[in-house]
Amino acid sequence: MWDTGRGGGGDDATALARTNVDWRETENSHIFTAEIPGVRKEEVKVEVEEGNVLRISGERTKAEEDVGDTWHRVERRRGRFMRRFRLPDNANMDEIKCSLENGVLTAAVPKRGQRLARNVRAIDIS
Predict the structure, then answer these.
(1) Cβ pair 103, 40 in contact under 8 A
(2) What is the pLDDT of residues 102-120, one digit of tens each?
(3) Domain named SHSP: which ranges (predicted)?
(4) Terminal CA-CA length for the chain
(5) In angstroms, rounded to a whole number, what is the distance separating the alpha carbons of residues 71 and 95?
(6) Which residue pairs, CB below 8 angstroms and at least 24 apart, start in 115-120?
(7) Nearest alpha-carbon partner for 30 in 65, 9, 54
(8) Which residue, 46, 47, 19, is CA-closest to 35?
(9) Measuring CA to CA, which residue among 1, 93, 84 is closest to residue 45?
(10) Helices (H) and strands (E) in the chain — how many of each?
(11) CA-based Rg of the chain, rounded to a whole angstrom?
């Protein structure tokens, strides 16, 4: 399994590196939890690539500035972010459920039923 969504360098690229995602596996599903404070639902995409790659992307926008404002410190990150995760074959990519609450995106990918045996045929031993 791989994760290619970590970037670095430059103002916009720092947002890539700062999108923290936890991936946990339960008996019935794979659950992804991403911290994306200040990002609205309309600014986030959860997509499936190549059949079994989950992609979480979006953009943190810059706050509106008034002409007379004086900024003393800017610590909140802005810019685009993207994270990718290759899921195992047991992931049911057609049944993904997502929610965004209090700046935390949760994506639940259910597991397919385990197949015990595929076309197993007994062979007599002589």
Answers:
(1) no
(2) 999 999 999 997 554 456 6
(3) 12-126
(4) 43
(5) 45
(6) none
(7) 54
(8) 19
(9) 84
(10) 1, 7
(11) 20
Place of tokens 């659950």: 31
Q: How far is 71 from 11, CA to CA, in rounded Å?
A: 17
Query: Using the 8-state DSSP alphabet, how is residue 90 labeled?
Result: T
**16-to-2, 4, 84 alpha-carbon distances in Å:** 16, 11, 11
Residue with tokens 């385990």: 114
CA-to-CA distance for 110 and 45, rounded, in angstroms? 19
The rounded Cα 99 to chain-centroid distance in angstroms is: 12
Per residue, the 3-state secondary structure of 29-68, as one string, reads EEEEEEECCCCCHHHEEEEEECCCEEEEEEEECCCCCCCC
33 CB burial (10 A radius; 0-12, 13-18, 19+): middle
Residue 95: helix, strand or coil by DSSP?
helix
Tens of pLDDT, residue by residue over 33-85, are 999 988 889 999 999 999 999 999 998 877 677 778 887 887 777 788 999 99
